[in-house]
Amino acid sequence: MSELRRTPLHAFNATRGGRMVDFAGWDMPVQFASIVEEHRATRRAAGLFDVSHMGEASVTGPEATAFLDFVLTNDISSMESGRALYSLMCYEHGGVVDDLLVYKKSDDDYLLCLNASNTAKDVAWLESKLSGFEAKLDDVSDDYALLALQGPKALEILGGLTSTDLGSLSYYWFAEGEVAGKPCIISRTGYTGEQGVELFVSPGDAHELAEAIVGAGEPLGLVLAGLGARDSLRLEAGYSLYGHEIEEDISPVQANLMWTVKLKKAADFIGKAALIAEKANGPSRKIVFFKTGSRRIVRSGTEVLANGEAVGKVVSGTFSPVLNEAIGSALVDAASLQAELSVDMRGKSMRLFQTKPPFIELNP
Amino acid sequence: MNIPQDLKYTKDHEWLKLLDNGEAIIGITDYAQQSLGDITFVELPEAGDRFDSGAPFGVVESVKAASDLYMPIDAEIVEGNAELEDAPEKVNQSAFEEGWIVKIKILDASQISGLLDAAAYAEIAEN
Description:
The complex is a heterodimer.
Chain A: H1 10-15, E1 19-23, E2 26-31, H2 35-44, E3 46-50, E4 55-60, H3 64-71, E5 84-90, E6 96-106, E7 109-114, H4 119-128, E8 136-139, E9 145-150, H5 154-159, E10 174-179, E11 182-187, E12 196-201, H6 203-217, E13 222-225, H7 227-236, H8 272-281, E14 285-291, E15 303-306, E16 309-320, E17 325-333, E18 341-345, E19 348-355
Helix pairs in contact in A: 2-7
Chain B: E1 8-9, E2 14-18, E3 23-28, H1 30-36, E4 39-43, E5 50-51, E6 56-62, E7 66-70, E8 75-80, H2 83-86, H3 90-93, E9 102-106, H4 118-125
């Protein structure tokens, strides 16, 4: 096995008590003190997450917009400079290559933020689709560390460290500025359902930036948070995670993500025909979210039952610290969506109560 | 790491507190609760249930994983710690006291000599 990769904040994480685990080939902190406490602190005040393992790619050139409109499902041509946009990247058959954020710097200059586990695959996929477009793709993952500062106090903490006007930076917009004297892309985005930013920063500046945020944030209740809390926060917020709610063989029709697929945009795009057909015929299965009324976590991979028959599988399961019960999502045969769903937990039947995400009120 | 001297231990990171009346209290060690992380659920057996030494008698679940509990000694359940139903985090907060899991009646006292003392357990937990 090859050695685990380390983010520029590896030493910072390790010396501050991060419990390090292998995540997609990266040595990442799954937690610092307690997943549940990091989760609660992020909802109550703020959490700081090292997400530098995520990949970045730049797409430049006179046909960068046209290229992205061809490979991505969302409408790139209608983006304004300074905007961030969530999009899927699909295969011809409608399954998902990855979900990602697109940052538009100008008409011929975009930055993509990619899932760590998919970065190499994404870059190869994008490169294979470039021919015919006057556009250039570069894997710039090593140029950036990425810090997510999330929570109701996040903007107050950041406000003391930057002259960028955060009040005029709306949700899903970004600005280039300085934080604690370090040049950053300040993006009003996140994966928690709370207010906050994601900061792209040079790897050499990441450690000092993190120290400055901790220094400013701790008096306001900020904690360091790991990937464990990142996952429970995103699931409580009802956000999809690649490899769980979306996959190579789970389409956006099945994942309830058609709001990110602009079938009416002018450009043809990869997967369009398959998605139109699947939408018209109705998907064979769908992602549903569920509560349990129990504290017992239903783990990913558990078979979902209806009337004693297997009708799907759980794809995400965690404990919601806000609701104080186990929550999750499952991929279920369309024919059984109205049925009473349950799982077998070591011989005991447990009901899954379908619910519309998010599980909590979001305040991003 | 906290390993009280007056308790018996197993290699599965459980502790037993032997009582004077042929009963014992069982819990998981500080090492075990730290490894599991935030405990969200404990499945307890019913009073009167009997288990052979080595048999699974319950489950401790954390955000990260579910872990079986193994009976260290032939036993009959006297009671489970009902407080854990609403507050399983007590196992994290107080593994050796408030976070106890079951009280048992020991059915074969000769097995007690097979349990680990604090020093022997410390070697396992610290490696």
